[in-house]
Amino acid sequence: MTRPHRAAPRAARAARVALAATAAALLVATAACSSDSGGRRAREEREAAAMGQADTPRMTVALVTHGGEGDTFWDTVREGAEDAAHKSNARLIYSSDPSVEGQATFVRNAIDQDVDGIAVSLANPQGLSRVLADAREAGIPVVGLNSGADAWRDLGLLSFFGQDETVAGRAFGERLNEEGAEHAVCVVHEQGNIGHEARCAGLAETFEGESEILYVEGTDMPSVRSTVEARLRQDSSVDWVAALGAPFALTAVDAARDAGSEAAVATFDLNTELVNAIRAGDIAFAVDQQPYLQGYLAIDALWLFHTNGNFSGGGAEPVLTGPAFVDAGNVEEIAAFAENGTR
């Protein structure tokens, strides 16, 4: 596999997180402060904010995803990326577009800006292959996240952070068997997304009942609701709806209610509203791939490459962040984190 030629700085071996020094400075500033409590408080807040931030040279990194409008999954990914960027003394440029053409344009923009690293989701690896080759040619390190667990090596990326979507789909299908499901509809909200197709294919592989794929327009939630409702009205044998994202699962609950269907709803991925829906019994379970962790690790990997020459996963294996099931039995364990926007 061809590696980027931009070498990690040797001086970065001395990189460290300036906790002790900053803490000492904070103590001195507090002891020596004047009676101006407002100024003292502002100074202390600035110093506290600096704690835990690397003193390595300032970097600029780009994160390009295929997130669509209204899909809160990507808000959590971005939250993790922003936290990692702050820790790493990096400026983060975030861009998203459901179309592969838009994603390629954003990657091209990052190359033109001569960023220090790029993290990209690979929902359509073939459509990004040329521009990612250009990034390698420019010596810009690139890591993958979320989608593309089977494609990142062939594209010459440093590392990948996410879940194996086929494995996740198989686990979903096995869970449906345990639930006694007979007819499941797998709702795909991004046509052409290889990760979505892999989830539904994995589900069909292990599920012992009947399964089918229902394509919806994910950027138009009223259309999602009416399409799911129509399918449930059309076939009363459908007893489970498998959504591929939290907002779409919540919409499927409404669609089932509108259709007068008793179909249960389960999903891939979480957000705060979905956690509450599991608590309320409206959603049976969710497969969590930890999007915050994907965003955080992707940006952190670029920093580690620059400062210490590290390859997460050894450059050969993906770093898996899922799958794990969340249901009524364990939802309270992560509820507080979900409310913070990090699960």
TrEMBL record:
PANTHER family: ABC TRANSPORTER PERIPLASMIC-BINDING PROTEIN YPHF, D-XYLOSE-BINDING PERIPLASMIC PROTEIN. It comes from Streptomyces boetiae. Residues 62-303 form the Periplasmic binding protein domain. The keyword Transit peptide does not apply. Residues 38-48 have a biased composition (Basic and acidic residues). It comes from the Bacteria. PROSITE patterns: PROKAR_LIPOPROTEIN. Its main location: other. Belongs to the bacterial solute-binding protein 2 family. Residues 35-54 are annotated as: Disordered. The keyword Signal applies. Keywords: Signal. It is found in: Cell envelope. Residues 1-34 form the signal peptide. This is Substrate-binding domain-containing protein. Gene3D superfamilies: 3.40.50.2300.
